Amino acid sequence: xxxxxxxxxxxxxxxxxxxxxxxxxxxxxxxxxxxxxxxxxxxxxxxxxxxxxxxxxxxxxxxxxxxxxxxxxxxxxxxxxxxxxxxxxxxxxxxxxxxxxxxxxxxxxxxxxxxxxxxxxxxxxxxxxxxxxxxxxxxxxxxxxxxxxxxxxxxxxxxxxxxxxxxxxxxxxxxxxxxxxxxxxxxxxxxxxxxxxxxxxxxxxxxxxxxxxxxxxxxxxxxxxxxxxxxxxxxxxxxxxxxxxxxxxxxxxxxxxxxxxxxxxxxxxxxxxxxxxxxxxxxxxxxxxxxxxxxxxxxxxxxxxxxxxxxxxxxxxxxxxxxxxxxxxxxxxxxxxxxxxxxxxxxxxxxxxxxxxxxxxxxxxxxxxxxxxxxxxxxxxxxxxxxxxxxxxxxxxxxxxxxxxxxxxxxxxxxxxxxxxxxxxxxxxxxxxxxxxxxxxxxxxxxxxxxxxxxxxxxxxxxxxxxxxxxxxxxx
Length: 476
Prior knowledge:
The protein is of the alpha/beta class. It has helices at 8-20, 25-42, 58-66, 83-94, 121-132, 177-180, 237-249, 264-269, 305-317, 349-356, 360-365, 367-377, 414-426, 429-432, 435-456, 462-468; strands spanning 3-4, 49-54, 74-79, 105-109, 137-140, 162-166, 182-186, 200-202, 226-230, 254-258, 275-276, 291-294, 322-324, 343-345, 382-385, 391-393, 399-401. 36% of the residues lie in helices and 14% in strands. Strands 1-8-17-16-15-14-13-12-9-10-11 form an 11-stranded mixed beta sheet, sandwiched between helices. A 6-stranded parallel beta sheet has the order 3-2-4-5-6-7, sandwiched between helices. A hairpin with a 5-residue loop joins strand 16 and strand 17.
């Protein structure tokens, strides 16, 4: 089940309810220590030195609890009771000595969720020293110095590479990505089930344990839908190719790509399993089409008005799912929709701002409000707002925050691949029964493939990503 995004006060209430139900704070600390140690082992190598910064509160207890479980690692515990002494101790660990390598990781357990006042100069100096050391940082629950409710620094804050928050995500952590780094959640730490239901929810890999739906043994390509992709124009033919490859990775029965005639040959020459035919005005959709994608690579200056008119007509009348991406987003008109069919738009903040008549910065300032308004304007369509922790939702109901992905997705063609993969899923009758989960799954798989690629190779391209898309298995 997705986790609600909660406040610090709700986290405290959850903890107190757990203690009242007989759960042990000591056991929870041990569980957090285990989760923290597992993540620290993944971020380091045998023989590496890890520095543990442990404050006086439970955040420090969590960090200390990890130490016995850091197998084949050297650990240096910096007890942060007096910030000046801690700064001196930490600085000494950074100084090279014969036979002692520089540390490879810092576990930050200085301050937790209870911090709600500005730090004094000595604590800020310690945090500055840690940040200037240039070491990867794994923060426990929240980067020390960050207000986990509003995402603001209390004078100074640790700049984490990974933040492992416990129980459920806190609201402020989603507002301070530059300090939080990669946000991860350790949900199973021994508390009772989360007693809260919230508008925004954090996606877990376990949400997709039954996805994609199993295929019947007695089946054929006619059972899994037919994708029509209208994409690719002069100078942008690669987008059509990537969208097609994304669709094929979802394994629909058939994929047909209709690029502009000027790029028919370069698109067709790069695809084998997909059928390719040049787009022509008044041409019928391929027989048996069950989902349509418009937009990738339709950015050439001279595109026929008939193409835009066709897109609007399909948005209003086509009975199956339709996904609109990239340049085609600007062709839609408010309130145009087929009320009974699935409609999906996939804007990034700049595109969302243009649709709403505001700036990308304003979209980023209140992503949920922007998503809701986009959905309302375009007939209660599903919106995939492509940001760090992509949002999925509609004008009403739950908003889902994606947990996978990394900054290396910020490459040309990434969105084309996602749009194709999403369409390939929604073309299939089994996925059409639960379109919201299909959309969330596509977004999660796209990010998970990027995470897997980043683990296996330092540098990769969207072409590499296309080869891995859809292969990441949800955690059991």
